[in-house]
Amino acid sequence: MLNGYNAEDKVLVAVDCIIFGFDNEDLKILLIKRDFEPEKGKWSLIGGFLKNQETLDDAASRILHRLTGVHNIYMEQFYAFSEVDRDPKERTVSVSYFALINIENHNKELIENYNAKWFSLSKAPKLIFDHNEMLAKAIRRLQRRASIKPIGFELLPEKFTMRQLQKLYEAILNKDLDKRNFINKINSLDILIKLKEKDMTSSTKGSFLYRFDQKKYDEKLMDNFYLKL
Amino acid sequence: MLNGYNAEDKVLVAVDCIIFGFDNEDLKILLIKRDFEPEKGKWSLIGGFLKNQETLDDAASRILHRLTGVHNIYMEQFYAFSEVDRDPKERTVSVSYFALINIENHNKELIENYNAKWFSLSKAPKLIFDHNEMLAKAIRRLQRRASIKPIGFELLPEKFTMRQLQKLYEAILNKDLDKRNFINKINSLDILIKLKEKDMTSSTKGSFLYRFDQKKYDEKLMDNFYLKL
DNA sequence: CCAAAAGTGTTATAACTACACCCATGT
DNA sequence: ACATGGGTGTAGTTATAACACTTTTGG
């Protein structure tokens, strides 16, 4: 390596992850009770520091894996927070990621060992530092993403019912949707496979299960869902 | 200050700015010819390093002001780039901002002193490091922003004609728009003030000038322009 | 036979797209 | 008188929003 930019300041770079999950009713986030100073014992997002030899994505994956035991979690970087005193201990810039995880599909013991807990969005506690601000921004980003491309399947089990999907979107967008309009809209996207099986747990009649069709989705390149001018 | 997180790695944090301008024909970006190693003499985005006692927004403002002489430039943080070897000299994480500037409204001498130059997007040269990737991402972000809220007035003089505005949107979205539909759409937003004056430079008939009405815009809280489900 | 959730279509309204001619003025 | 860019309206199409009843079956 060439000799560096000596005169410049170096700072700590943290990665904080907003982990969203869904329990068929509410949108939830995973928080940990912090076990070191400062702010020991307070609720916090899951985070860690960027190492010299990894990218931010690497760091986020590492942090998510350490807590949940799961690899290949859907995640997306969304903002760098940099108030000078945001961490009272030392100047730290934090790059935030949001992640979507199937709430059934992670290592419960790991999470318990980390003093982690799922909270409904509406019941989230006060968090350390600027983490509430991060959370608010993450929710807005998730809402936009969900309106723009059919994200969110990551939050459901592999097979799911229309009603589950609708409830998920209602939870993300924080408003009620009309059942028929929702189904028509989803069907018009033509990215789900309707299975022959039914889920019998939610009603006597049972409701058909669907799978997300990644192949069809990729073919359609659903990237331009924006309001067109 | 409490004593720090000693075991953690610190890195350099850079801020790189994609500065968009508009000359009534093309969307342009401002680039500088780099006058220090590595990659001396190559074209580059405008950047600098984050200092210990400033936020990322502060750093971006400082960098933009130093180059253009202008304060209060519209800017928006959009992504942190962190490939380990993106800067061969030293490990650097770069947080990118895009900025919109009225191309007439900056200090031309300053820009010349910095070896800076406006390039049409279609004629942008190869840039150092990962700056082409940053540029591509900035363009996509700008396009989305322009579809979502009436950004872009920042790129025009205070008084402008409908035709100028249309050309700007055509340049941003990189496609032709229908004159009548465009005007109807803009008028339906009801955020412009039609002035009595005409601009006589572009035609014999002259065309009416408009101003952006910040107050009306704020009242309307035009934040939910997204595809609704 | 009834409670509980699933499933299914139509109509009214709003938004978007495509499209062509006249106007004003300087040269 | 003509060349140049400015200005204007409508009709067809598509997307969205509002709305209520029937089906299934376990208890």
From TrEMBL, chains A, B:
CDD domains: NUDIX_NadM_like
InterPro entries: NUDIX_hydrolase-like_dom_sf, NUDIX_hydrolase_dom, WH-like_DNA-bd_sf, WH_DNA-bd_sf, WHD_NrtR
PANTHER family linked: ADP-RIBOSE PYROPHOSPHATASE, SLR1690 PROTEIN
Organism superkingdom: Bacteria
Domain (Nudix hydrolase) ranges: 10-143
Protein known as: ADP-ribose pyrophosphatase YjhB (NUDIX family)
Pfam families: NUDIX (PF00293), WHD_NrtR (PF21906)
